[in-house]
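tool_call: predict_structure(chain=1)
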Amino acid sequence: MDQLLYVFVKVVEKGNFTKAAEELHMTQPAVSQHIQTLERLFDTKLLDRTNKYVKLNKAGEIVYHYAKEILGLYTRMNQLLDDLMNRASGELSIGASYTYGEYVLPQMIAKLHQHYPLIKPTITIGNSNEIVEMVSSHQLDVGIIEMDIEPKNVYIEPFAKDQMVVVASVHHPYAQKESVQMDDLRNATWIVRETGSGTRKATDEFFLKHNFFPSSIMEFGSTQLIKEAVEAGLGLTFLSLWTIKKELSFGTLKIIPINDEPFFRHFSLVTPKTPFYTKAMEVFLTIVRTHQPSISHSPQPPSP
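tool_result:
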């Protein structure tokens, strides 16, 4: 059954039989036979077929959702059995929200590979809500998010702080000042992340803390795009220090020194509610917990 489900998932994700056959190193008739066998077992059609693509019908959507979960559990079971040999090896699926995934996680993966080269990590980047959902449904072994979220059949463990700062182009008038009041920035254009992201939630909390309602907001779905827009002088933003380290060193972005206490949020681990973790997951969790990113930052002096 697991092979039938695996082929079915590949067909759905590739969108047609030919691409799935290439990925699986099978002939197209063999792939078609697997799908037909699965449909006979369930006594229902799972896919709507055309000459160019296949599409899930309602029954197919149900099977696809649970097939992903079943295959994830099957893989995890095999890994736990392999761990009886006392080797940290095998696949490890890691999900992370954008800030941690793009700016911190690569360092953790490098440490993991250095000490445990037999572990093969795969990385999924998404917003915090998506990562929690994928861990909950066993599509990911572990997730790392950057917002407080209600547990949903998972464990949420804060493990590191992340400092957030107001950022502007180095040429912005307020970037030259020693301190700025939030009210001074009310009429500026603010460029923010999309709803559902950890950075957007932190931004909304920051605004609420100051009873601050910008007169103009632009919503972008990428931190990199936000940074480039701010560099170009389009407006201000509120980002993690980790995301702007390079731009600060290059002198293209500058922190606006708000006359207030620093704003922090937490990076949190998301793990399934299970008493069993593979050795690959255990060593990854140890690396993440013991190599926490530094958040120290010295205020920038005003430009002459």
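agent: The first strand starts at residue 47 and ends at 49. Proceeding to next step.
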